[in-house]
């Protein structure tokens, strides 16, 4: 990619190709919020079709176009592309003809990060939730932070926004640092946070190399000492956190308890209560409170803030209860996340029925054994796992694996596992399995229609 842009002051009229993506829309809104004149296009924008992202971006004053090149003109001084945008896209060709610099999303985020006191949240799982909790804590503490996240905060969505970005007056910026595309190595944050290291998009040794660079680029570095691989990268034990009884760390969570849809715990003996489920959310809150403390926020202030934390979109989003069955929708999509999501919902009811839609043939093949092991490990005798066919986003893929292969492997381990190829048949197939006291948990990511799917399931339930 050509790039003569060295600072966020080097452009005024950026154009985003693929602006509806969660990572792209967040940066677009942030730049609009600091006074840039932003516009963008997306392949999901088609004439006469309602698109919620488009409506919300336009409400922020960001004009949106179809992906036909009409949005780029001689006033455009930067074109931003996500990793998924190919050279053959009409708009990339037009930008090249007009000699407009082209920059990747991650490079642009690195430039923005350099312009603020940045906290970069890294790790394989929990980045969006921890970023959101940290943003809420700092906002509650009067620090007026900014955020560029990967998921919508319910508190910001209520303002009619997409919810994954906000510009504050303060000096702090919270960002999600993504390891899946390697972009995390471009940031030089004031505080780098490492939540965990699990096999997801890359093998463990690759991840450790990437996270080591992240550590070396961070002024202060904070790790989760409950996670053996993350603990190896500790910079200062007093800045680290942990939730194991025998662990040495500056911040320790204890006394975890879950009652229905609420959790409670203590951090350094300060009591915390949250309207969330799962031990992993205690871990996310512990990470957020630890980093907030390094930024000067007292633990009691963090506890006050998190008591009112409303969560982020599609992260254990509770739709409600019908005939004794709770419906919960979650973004879990790798083996560790799916297992944690299932475990988080088990205390709510004696029976849990989980449904999962894997995404991508390559990733599903890569993680097949891990999915089988992790899901089989956490299912209780009365619990069930259901899957529908792998979500395919287009492009070149060898379709030599099916979600049915995973289901067959799990069934071979003696678990109750069912395959329903077309998810639209799910409710019909699952209805006889529902009881008067159960949880139906929907899991999946990357497929923009999953949110509507949850709504349809709720209506049919």
Automatic annotation (TrEMBL):
<keyword id="KW-0133">Cell shape</keyword>
<keyword id="KW-0132">Cell division</keyword>
<dbReference type="InterPro" id="IPR004101">
    <property type="entry name" value="Mur_ligase_C"/>
</dbReference>
<dbReference type="GO" id="GO:0016881">
    <property type="term" value="F:acid-amino acid ligase activity"/>
</dbReference>
<keyword id="KW-0131">Cell cycle</keyword>
<keyword id="KW-0547">Nucleotide-binding</keyword>
<keyword id="KW-0067">ATP-binding</keyword>
<dbReference type="InterPro" id="IPR036615">
    <property type="entry name" value="Mur_ligase_C_dom_sf"/>
</dbReference>
<dbReference type="GO" id="GO:0071555">
    <property type="term" value="P:cell wall organization"/>
</dbReference>
<dbReference type="Pfam" id="PF02875">
    <property type="entry name" value="Mur_ligase_C"/>
</dbReference>
<dbReference type="GO" id="GO:0008360">
    <property type="term" value="P:regulation of cell shape"/>
</dbReference>
<dbReference type="Pfam" id="PF01225">
    <property type="entry name" value="Mur_ligase"/>
</dbReference>
<dbReference type="InterPro" id="IPR000713">
    <property type="entry name" value="Mur_ligase_N"/>
</dbReference>
<dbReference type="GO" id="GO:0005524">
    <property type="term" value="F:ATP binding"/>
</dbReference>
<keyword id="KW-0961">Cell wall biogenesis/degradation</keyword>
<dbReference type="InterPro" id="IPR013221">
    <property type="entry name" value="Mur_ligase_cen"/>
</dbReference>
<keyword id="KW-0573">Peptidoglycan synthesis</keyword>
<dbReference type="Pfam" id="PF08245">
    <property type="entry name" value="Mur_ligase_M"/>
</dbReference>
<keyword id="KW-0436">Ligase</keyword>
<dbReference type="GO" id="GO:0009252">
    <property type="term" value="P:peptidoglycan biosynthetic process"/>
</dbReference>
<dbReference type="GO" id="GO:0051301">
    <property type="term" value="P:cell division"/>
</dbReference>
<feature type="domain" description="Mur ligase N-terminal catalytic">
    <location>
        <begin position="16"/>
        <end position="116"/>
    </location>
</feature>
<dbReference type="InterPro" id="IPR050061">
    <property type="entry name" value="MurCDEF_pg_biosynth"/>
</dbReference>
<protein>
    <submittedName>
        <fullName>UDP-N-acetylmuramate--L-alanine ligase</fullName>
    </submittedName>
</protein>
<feature type="domain" description="Mur ligase central">
    <location>
        <begin position="121"/>
        <end position="292"/>
    </location>
</feature>
<feature type="domain" description="Mur ligase C-terminal">
    <location>
        <begin position="314"/>
        <end position="446"/>
    </location>
</feature>
<dbReference type="InterPro" id="IPR036565">
    <property type="entry name" value="Mur-like_cat_sf"/>
</dbReference>
